[in-house]
Structure formats: C-alpha cells, structure tokens
Amino acid sequence: MKGPLTYPPEIVPIDRADCLSNQGLTSVRESRIEKQLEDRLMWVVLVCGIPFIYFAIVHASLPTLVLFQGYLLTATAIGVIGIKNRAVLRQQWFWRAMACSLPVHIAAISGIYHWDKANLEIAFKGFYTLGIVELAGVIEMFVIVAIMVFWES
Asked: Could you tell me if residue 8 is inside a domain?
C-alpha cells in the first residue's frame, strides 16, 4: 500500500480543504459571494424587464418596442461594465467616465429609434429587434471603453 494521496494544488478535493491556506479559502469564499451578488443582480434586471417585454409583445407599437430595446441596451451595458468589475464602482474616475458616456448611450438609443422608425415593417421581427440592439451595443461599448481608458489614466 502506498502513502497518502497527494494532489496538485489546483486539484484539491473539497474534503481536503484543510490543506488549503486561509488565502485560498478567502478567495474561494469571495468568488462565491461575487457569484451570488451577480446572480441576484441578474434576477433584479430580469424581473425589472418583465414589463418592457410584456408591453413590447402584447401592445406592440413603436414606442413600446423602443422602450424594450432601450432597456435591453441599458441592461447589457450595466451587465458588462458594472457587474463584472464592481471594484471600480467606488472610484471617482469611473463615475466621471459614466457621466461622459451618457450622451453616447442616449445617441445609441436614438439611433435604434430612428432605425426602427425607418424600417417599421421588419422592426418587430425578433432577429432584427435584437440585432439592432447588438449592433448599437457593440459600437457603444467601443466608445465607452475609450472614454473609460481616458478617464482612468
């Protein structure tokens, strides 16, 4: 019979967690807490979006469609910027960058509105509805990241 099993540091079983240092346990706890907070925020975002989804489907009109798309764009921007990197939320440069990014966000939503208005016959089809939000979101993210890099330095 051989001696006790040894594991590489990255493959330690849960019941052998006593072999981990306090630093390792702390980072595991912190990552679990971070994941729980992300999940809670995602549920809040989804529950808040239910009225927009309802009105865009049941009472389909240009204003309700644009409200849904604007909410979708805003929730995506918050998810990409705010959820994944919450440490920057406490820094002053971040809020300055967000204040400068607000006109970009408003311009993206205005662009979505004008596209929907010009292409009303296909605007309510699912692919086009989400596709225009994706296109505006990608362009908006490039500009917002450039603004954030400017304010961070």
From this structure: no
